[in-house]
Design goal:
Elements lengths: L1 H9 L2 H4 L9 E6 L2 E2 L4 E2 L10 E5 L6 E11 L8 E12 L8 E4 L10 E10 L18 H7 L7 E8 L3 H4 L2
Parallel strand pairs: 3-9
Antiparallel strand pairs: 1-2, 1-4, 5-6, 5-8, 6-7, 8-9
Subcellular location: Cytoplasm
Family: Belongs to the phosphatidylethanolamine-binding protein family.
Length: 174
């Protein structure tokens, strides 16, 4: 399992966004049939539609919360605004996908303006259905760790991230 964490450590997701954890659930994130793997790059033009997120673990009585965040706002060299909440879904039954959950913050299309941004999907196991009550009041200056602590979510059970940067007209034509 430690091998699964190595890309998250190298990409500074563990450290900047999350504490070290042991993955216990398989989460599959795809954009238009292209699976997200740690550290791979996606062009913003490929991110316009809500991704498919499938959870393989637990059972229908186990519920999860999905957080998608950008920890590099406004830019990776000086991310003084820290995390920006891109998407938040709670009460996702195990062995299903996010469409069965409650969308608390709608999917926001990643639009990095300065540098290469990391976009992180984090999955937490809830204590029970409807247990996430402390919801964010703003997408800006979001903190995944604080959100998890306020809702007694503990450590993540799965995480994956991709990179994206501003897409120039020349890059779109390739």
């Amino acid at each position: 399992m430690a091998r699964n964490l190595e890309p998250l450590k190298v990409g500074r997701v563990i450290g900047d966004v999350l504490e070290s954890f042991i993955p216990t659930v398989n989460m599959r994130v795809t954009y238009a049939n292209k699976q997200v793997y740690n550290g791979h790059e996606f062009f913003p033009s490929a991110l316009t539609h809500t991704p498919s997120v499938e959870i393989h673990g637990g059972d229908l009585r186990t519920f999860y919360t999905l957080v998608m965040t950008d920890p590099d706002v406004p830019g990776p060299s000086d991310p003084y605004l820290k995390e920006h909440l891109q998407w938040l879904v709670t009460d996702i039954p195990g062995t299903t996908n996010v469409t069965f959950g409650k969308e608390v913050a709608s999917y926001e299309i990643p639009k990095p303006y300065i540098g290469i941004h990391r976009f992180v999907f984090v999955l937490f196991r809830q204590k029970g259905r409807l247990s996430v009550k402390n919801l964010p009041t703003s997408r800006n200056c979001f903190c995944t760790r604080t959100f998890a602590a306020e809702n007694d979510l503990g450590l993540p059970v799965a995480a994956v991230f991709f990179n994206s940067q501003r897409e120039t007209a020349a890059r779109r034509t390739r």
